[in-house]
Amino acid sequence: MSRVLALDYGTKRIGVALSDETKKIAFAKPYIPFSRRAELVMMVAEDEVSQILLGMPKNLSGEETAAAGAVREFAAWLTEQTGLPITFIDERFTTKEILRENQGNKEAKGMVDSLVAQRILQNYLDNNV
Description:
CATH architecture: 2-Layer Sandwich
Radius of gyration: 14 Å
Largest sheet: 5 strands, mixed
CATH superfamily: YqgF/RNase H-like domain
Number of strands: 5
CATH class: Alpha Beta
Number of helices: 5
Oligomer: single chain
Helix content: 40-55%
Shape: globular
Strand content: 25-35%
């Protein structure tokens, strides 16, 4: 059985979440520093990933933000490396929601990017699989 990988792209850190084999539950994984992004290619192979979701930054009106260009470049690189297409997911408000929900939680502070990826993935699994 294959899994779904969700990523929250950042120029310093990439948040990572992976589904279980039944594609019902999303699990946050430790973030990957951008400088070690090649580890994602190994993860795709090792965890038998068949689909990749990537958060797309949008503004309140739903238009892509200035950061979207870097996200699209990263997506092109990842598709080239893995052979898998990328599904872009609107990530509006996810970081703010995660920060609000985990206010004061020191353990969650270092996992914010991956918790965002987990939220993106779980919403996707709940509504599309």
